[in-house]
Amino acid sequence: MNKLNRLHMSMLAVLLGSVALVGCKKKEEPAPLPPVASEPAPMPQTPAPMPATASVSSVDLGNAVGADMRVTAPMTTFSPKDTIHAAVATATSDPMASVSGKLGAKWTHVDSNQTVNEESKDVTFTGDGVTDFQISKPSGWPTGKYKVEISLDGNVVQTREFEVR
Prior knowledge:
Layout: H1 2-24, E1 54-62, E2 77-78, E3 84-92, E4 98-109, E5 114-126, E6 129-135, E7 144-152, E8 155-164
Parallel strand pairs: 2-8
Antiparallel strand pairs: 1-3, 3-6, 4-5, 4-7, 7-8
């Protein structure tokens, strides 16, 4: 019976040790609740609206323009005595806003790589509009290939090629 007693005592010691370990374990505190807001959270800020911009939507060449400054009959071939018009159609990103800018036209005789004329205009763009550039030469244009480069605020945005025969 001595063996049985020792076994019971050993089991009792293990059981008491386990209970003691569990009893000594630190009790965990529950996580604190977030504080109650006394003021409403700030509203997210909306980004400032982008300023309106101007763009060139098209360039038409012709030898005549109407009262609206648009080319009456677009063409790419001219006679030496023609006045050549470039009607530059523009638009703004906000039709109600005014945008200041500079439109330019550089006319080049491609065959001789010579600048025929260069002109710029300060423009206040509002919605859709048309600006007319023109060149003429009473003694007549030399035959050959030409181009006009249209720039907006110093950046070339459209190029049109044409011919004088």
